[in-house]
Amino acid sequence: MGPRLSKSGLALLTYSFLVSITYFVASEVYPDAFDIVTLALKPTCVNRQMVTSVNKFILPQPRNVHIIANRGCDVFETFGENVICYQEDTLVPSLNATFVSMWFSTRVKDHPAQIDAKRIQQRSTWFFQQFMKLAAAAHIPGLSEYFVIFDSDMIALRPLTWFLPLNATSHLDDEKPRLPASAQQPYPAVRPVPGKSEDGCVNPHSFRMLVNVGGWLPKYGYMRTYELLTGRSIIYGHDNTSLVAHSTVVYKPYMAEFLESITMEKYRDITHGWILSIIDAVLDLQADTAPLNNRWRNIPLETNEVVMGFSEFWSYLSWVQDLYPCAFRQAAQRTWTRMPSQFPRTLSIAVKVDEKNYIDVCCPTADGIRATREHGLYFTGYELGHLRYCNYHHEAFHDGYAAWYQAT
């Protein structure tokens, strides 16, 4: 009698077979070339796991994983043979965190309302990261026409794609979709873009693109800025959530159209005029050119909403769904989570920082990833910055955080 597979070995073999079948059957709907783009502060065990997971699970197989980093590019490029890293302050000419901070500082001084200028300026790095994601399409050398921006603290859990067959199953409002129980389908059940007619819409792609739902909603920050920039109402998920799902699929020509469309007339001849337009909209400094149908006009501006004043994902996805509804489908339900089912825990090993002191670290583990996958989710976040016991911000980890650790 030949050797027998254990249950776990058989399950792994079956899983790998289903992944290969999924790719073979659906390959005709995928773009010819496809890349991943992400931003990161420094190399960590989380973004190492992110790179491993997207190369293993995202369909089609990413040609390159482009990482825009504040520091540690030499380490990032050891995470995978297809990783290409760029220093964030040199990739896009004249766009860096200092530039964005200075512009916010200058424009806040012109604001008549009683808002916390210091707090808003401190938030400028967060806005800078959003601007970099939007600028990537035009500035990363050789970037594919279709790419997915995937946040660096997210981890793919199973085969998944943002490219749908034209006949992908749609669910009606009175139907309850179910998350997949296996790897046989790398995308969820979907719905048409809510409230949008597809009459006269022509889809130039051989597939439709997936929009994930289930994002967090501010009081009005994201929505108000979008309407000021476009004169259009933002498009919600069919479940009345935002589309801030820590990932989005981008088609480069659509991104170029979007950025041109939100650029105010006074900034048309200025490099990165769309960035200046966004900042003015966030601070509500374009009263003379703002759309007349803006429903947020009479709501007092609050600092809490200014610091959450723009979403790169939701703004782009609203604009493309509005203009090209037949090219997109929304997920029928949320298929991702910001935190794994097992809350991040410190590892059984610690990092030695000097002769006497060791520091605990938190990293994704195989058991934790498996437990979250069993909930039927496609990807999960693994955010460490808000968990004090993980010591993410400790000075010992200025240049990297346990980037040597890999869940096995």
Please describe what this structure looks like.
InterPro entries: DUF6492. Keywords: Signal. Pfam families: DUF6492. With 408 residues, this protein is of the alpha/beta class. It has one domain. Helix content is 31%, strand content 16%. It is built from twelve helices and 16 strands. A five-stranded mixed sheet has the order 4-3-1-5-11, sandwiched between helices. Strands 8-10-12-9 form a four-stranded mixed sheet, with helices on one face. Strand 3, helix 3 and strand 4 form a beta-alpha-beta unit. Helix 4 packs across helix 6 and helix 7 packs across helix 9. The longest helix is centred in the first third of the chain and has 20 residues. About 3% of the residues have low confidence.
Task: List the defining traits of the structure above.
408 residues; alpha/beta; five-stranded mixed beta sheet; four-stranded mixed beta sheet; 12 helices; 16 strands; 31% helix; globular; DUF6492
Short synopsis of the structure:
Keywords: Signal. Residues 1-27 form the signal peptide. The strands form five sheets. The protein has a five-stranded mixed sheet, with helices on both faces. Strands 8-10-12-9 form a four-stranded mixed sheet, covered by helices on one side. The protein has a three-stranded mixed sheet with strand order 6-16-13.
Write the layout of secondary structure elements.
Blueprint: H1 7-26, E1 34-40, H2 45-57, E2 58-59, E3 64-69, H3 73-76, E4 83-87, H4 97-108, H5 117-122, H6 124-139, E5 146-150, E6 154-156, E7 160-161, E8 163-164, E9 190-191, E10 208-211, H7 221-230, E11 247-251, H8 252-261, H9 273-282, H10 303-306, H11 312-323, E12 328-331, E13 336-337, E14 346-352, E15 358-362, H12 366-373, E16 379-381
Parallel strand pairs: 1-3, 1-5, 2-7, 3-4, 10-12, 13-16
Antiparallel strand pairs: 5-11, 6-16, 8-10, 9-12, 14-15
Helix pairs in contact: 4-6, 7-9
